[in-house]
Amino acid sequence: MSKNIVLLLLICAVCQSVSGRQKRKDQYLDHGFSNISLKKRVVGKICDSCQVDFAVDAEPDFSYVMTGSGFTPERFCCGRNDNNPALGTYSNAKHLISKGLIGITFLPNFLMGKGKRVQYFRSYGGADYRKLEFSVKQNGRTIKSWGPILELKEDKNYSIGMPSFHAGTFNLRINDTLEITVRAIETKKIVKTITVIRAEDKATNFVFYELPMGSEDFSINLQNILNINSGIPEVEQGRTSNIFEKDYGTIGILRFGPLGNDELQYTFEKSRDQWKSIKGLNAENSAYIVFSAELPEGKVQDIYLRYSSQPETVHKITMSVKQKPFQMPWKKVAVISMFAVAVCGLWFYLWGKRNRARLAKLKRKSEDAEAQLMLLSGQLNPHFLFNSLNAIQGTFNSRDPERANAYIGNVAGFMRNVMNNGRKEFISLHEELALETDYLKLEQERMDFSYSIDIAPEIQTSTIDFPPLLLQPVLENSIRHAFNRDFASPLIQIRVFSYGTTLYVDIADNGKASWDSTTVHEGHGLSLIRKRMAVYNDKLETMPIDIQVNYKEGTGTMTRFTFQNWLS
Questions:
Q1: What phi, psi does 547 have (nearest 5°)?
Q2: Could you tell me the fold of the domain covering 206-321?
Q3: Distance of CA 339 to the CA centre of its chain
Q4: What percent of the chain has pLDDT over 90?
Q5: pTM of the complete model beyond 0.70
């Protein structure tokens, strides 16, 4: 505990001592101890009244002073948070600054004199400065190569009051990083790394308050604002908003946090060449911008803000005054209300009449679509029957009565399912795939081929409505046109998947012949399917169905059915 108290006293002595004067380093070798008395030089002379911004980092291993800027301003408190996207990642910065021109001067903890350590700063610790060297990088690019610290001279612009080694004065642009590394000359061991980042410093660390002039609590609320208290109405943070509104006849106040030695500058002009400066009474006090209660209603005022330490970063906010509360005599309110009720009643009557006519039209359209679907389904069933009779005839020609009888039974069952489902407007996707599986098994009795059905895990086929018998003509074309008797290993693949709310069904064959309507005459079954799709698209305008047939030599024919907005 006592060591911490002594350490604190030494730091205070370093930052606030006013004694000592500038001498050459070799003149201090026999001196006992010297405090820091940082003063500015003007035309070579020490200025006792000049204000100096500086920060001292006093550590047992290595010490230095940064001139031109103090420690990280309070408004940068969140800048060390890696998760703050507004300020970026500054967690590795030793100094987060607003000003651009800074100087770094090394302060020796001791120097060697007559073979002994002579103390100059804090405790007898750290390395011998005669054995140290340093380098400087700006934005990762070396601007000063390794050089001995002992060869450095004192800063001509400042008097520190003790031996010092001025590493240089550096001009940082916004978001520039300065990295100074100190190491042992012989072992190359890193003794100190100083990181300085000039962060973008927008004037957003303010709170907006609105105070009604006629409020009984006006004086209390104003006192609370001046005392940085809580519970004030109409509070908005400058870091989260650029647009602020206030009621007509109220006072608007922007309260900025303590500025330290900095100044806040503002202007209302677009040219932004008439800047006015404000600051707190001292470094711990807040600064205020007040908007009069006499601003006219509807007034929109732009305010440009910046800190004097970073004049190139200008932050624009907008203050608007709301319209006066609209008050109307009760008689006028009653008349307008009665007129509004009459207009609304007439509008609802006309809207209802129009809506009933629209519903009747939609009902007729739906009935027409269902009639067309029934007609097309009626044409589709004989088509299936014709193809099945041809298949039965082929089975009889094979002179295998038992196989023919079994095949006739299977065809009859399949036709029964076709007729039952063909009359429906929709069946489930599960039922459709079951029908197509039965059809493929019947076709395998006539022709040797393989098939597979792949359903994506997210597809629940039993809960998805599907137009019945929509896929069969495509399967029929693949079997009858894509493969011939001599084709080796014919294969048909059915794949069901989705993307968003769109359902896709792909049917691919590996045949060597194309059956696309652009190269061969389109069959009756595929023609009926296209007509049915047109009816569905007319009825379900927001859920269109599309078909695309593509043939690629060496790969086969791929048919894709697209059902947009088909999934919930």
A1: -130, 135
A2: Immunoglobulin-like (2.60.40)
A3: 49
A4: 23
A5: no
